[in-house]
Amino acid sequence: MSTTNGSGEKKRPQAPLGYGHDKKSGGKGRLSERESQGISFVLDGREVVAHDGETIWQVARRLGVDIPHLCYAPEPGYRPDGNCRACMVEVEGERVLAASCIRKPTAGMKVKTASERAKASRKMVFELLISDQPEREHSPDPISKFWNWADRIQIDASRFPAREIPAPDRSHPAMAVNLTACIECNLCVRACREVQVNDVIGMAGRGAAEKIVFDFDDPMGRSTCVACGECVQACPTGALMPASVVDERNVRVGVADRTVESVCPYCGVGCQLTYHIRNDKLLYVAGRNGPANENRLCVKGRFGFDYIDHPHRLKKPLIRKDGVKKRADDTVDPANPWTHFREGTWEEALDRAARGLKQIRDRDGDRALAGFGSAKGSNEEAYLFQKLVRTGFGNNNVDHCTRLCHASSVAALMETIGSGAVTATFAQCANSDVIIVIGANPTENHPVAATYFKNAAKRGATLIVMDPRGQALKRHATHMLQAKPGTDVAMLNGILNVIVAEGLYDKQYVQAHTDGFAAFAEHIRDFAPEEMAPICGIPADLLRTVARTYARAKSAIIFWGMGVSQHVHGTDNARCLIALALMCGQIGRPGTGLRSSRS
Fold it and tell me: Mean pLDDT, the chain, as a whole number?
């Protein structure tokens, strides 16, 4: 079963609207009639228009009017909470001030953002908050959002007594906790529970005893924290800080003198980030708002860079000492490689390597050498590497690690839809009703991608996880299919059989965009769930439920990992998944598609 263009010739499906065109993916499409008309109200004496769903704070920000804010982060994924009361504005005719971050304007409303009453309220809020803060020179972050706003409001001291100071927590190797700077704004709670969906941080206590806790008031380093660092990036006061920028007293000692924007070098999600550097040393990493991550990072992308300045890192080429022979059972101490090697120049090392390779080629023939590339290199480096093998070694013995990971998926995609590329991004599951994750453990291998699956499940989407292993995503899943290892084809054939037998496939899409369906339907007839259940270990009723759920979904998407592709039946596994999407018409629209991923 494959896609065609009506003349029998395979064609590539059109890119889904989610690639920068639909509203949820951040595209700049044409505004709807309601949005273009908007809501007209008066802001600081001038008539303005609020777009559909905008709050007073968002309208003010769009028009260049600054309103203080602490508990609200305008970054993607954060909802306003309205608890810090730093953003209060005056609405004509109302007795009390309104929190602009949660208040939406109505037609004809008159709002004053800088009235004396509003400014006095904000000053009081900041004075109350400063009373509980450590002295600025001893603060975990004297340049935090909190202190910057305090400067602008011209508040630097308080008349009110300070509360009891909680002890600092340095139990975590990557993050420092200093609750003396905490204002209970709840941003870290929302970051942990609603953005990353890790459910580690919460609030405990009542009144003046209220405080941030990790799990059951455990030290952060002994909690179930996965060290994504989202809470550190969200914190407006420095109560949560990267451990690399504070001393043992939790006082900030490192401020970056420049930044470098880049892409995370680890997995293939493509998270954008910003390196904060001082004196050419990396201080810390912050997430950047890219299409793949929307400021989110995982433990690797945020904290996995200590190798840069590790004493074992090689910064100069090493050449084996004369007389020290290679042995299979020999080991080299990375802290003391001088027992086997000496430092050399780049010219000497490159010349030595080139001579050795040339000697093998000339002595043993063109086919004596081979090359194996790595996905850690860039496309340009991969091109140069294969050029070295083909022109330098004189043969085609060149391979790449991606072939082992992804070749089966590419073969199936090329065969069925005419393109080896995926048809959807991870973020598209925000538009999906049903999400299938099979042969992948994203919470471990692609943690940022996993946050989008968890976000979707939290809003009510049906998450179906298929994996022989128990994994962390299981607790978010509506259905968990733990098939016997190696029986993916049987399990998927049982699902395909139900859709065909019950006529749940998209007849219009199949007729217009695919060929070979009649032969496929005849072939799949013998794979009833009752026949497949003893093979794969999944009850027939559950196979039927999953089949009906996927087929009847308005928008369904499939993600598969190397548990599907790195398999003796990898291509067949991918063929089944592609057939499932094609026969149900779940491709080419927002929230639909096929996405293979590799570590």
Answer: 91
> 3-class DSSP state for residue 176?
strand
**What residue type is 363 in one-letter code?**
R
Q: How far is CA 250 from CA 231, 238, 305, in A?
A: 17, 9, 21
Q: Which two tokens stand for residue 148?
A: 């910057």
Asked if 400 and 427 touch (Cβ cutoff 8 Å), the reply is no
Query: Exposure pattern of 178-210 as b/e (b: 16+ CB <10 Å)?
Result: bbbbbbbbbbbbbbbbbbbbbebbbeeeeeeee
Tokens of 293: 């991550």
- Rounded Cα distance between 151 and 145, Å, is 10
Q: Round to whole Å and give the CA distance between 562 and 446.
A: 12
Classify the C-alpha dihedral 495-497-500-501 as positive or negative.
negative
Q: Which two tokens stand for residue 117?
A: 């009453």
**Identity of the amino acid at 233:** Q
Helix axes 540-552, 529-536, angle to 10 degrees: 110
Query: What would the mean pLDDT of 317-342 be, rounded to a whole number?
Result: 94
515 CA to centre of own chain: 36
The verdict on pTM exceeding 0.85 is yes
Q: Helix 145-153 vs helix 116-131: angle between axes, to the nearest 10 degrees? A: 130
Q: How far is CA 524 from CA 160, 321, 495, 516, 564, in A?
A: 75, 64, 10, 12, 20
Q: What is the spatial distance between Cα 141 and Cα 137, in angstroms, rounded to a whole number?
A: 9
Joined tokens for residue 32 = 């709807």
Digit-coded pLDDT (tens) for 111-133: 999 999 999 999 999 999 999 99
**Consecutive H or E run containing 577:** helix 570-583
pLDDT band, residue 16 (cuts 50/70/90): very low
Residue among 544, 291, 537, 326 at smallest CA distance from 426: 291
Determine contact, residues 3/410, Cβ cutoff 8 Å: no
- Give which of 430, 436, 438, 377 is closest to 586, Cα–Cα: 436
State both tokens at 28. Answer: 């700049």
Closest CA to 539 of 486, 495, 485: 495
Of 428, 515, 594, 583, the closest CA to residue 11 belongs to: 515
- Which tokens go with 104? 């939406």
Rounded mean pLDDT, 462-475: 94
Tokens 């990898």 belong to which residue? 570
Which is it for strands 175-177 and 479-481: parallel, antiparallel or unpaired?
Answer: unpaired
For 496-519, what is each residue's pLDDT tens digit? 999 999 999 999 999 999 999 999
Distances (CA, A) of 1 to 104, 516, 583: 51, 5, 8
Three-class SS of residue 120? helix
Within 54-159, residue ranges assigned H as helices are 56-62, 116-131, 145-153
SS3 label, residue 2: strand
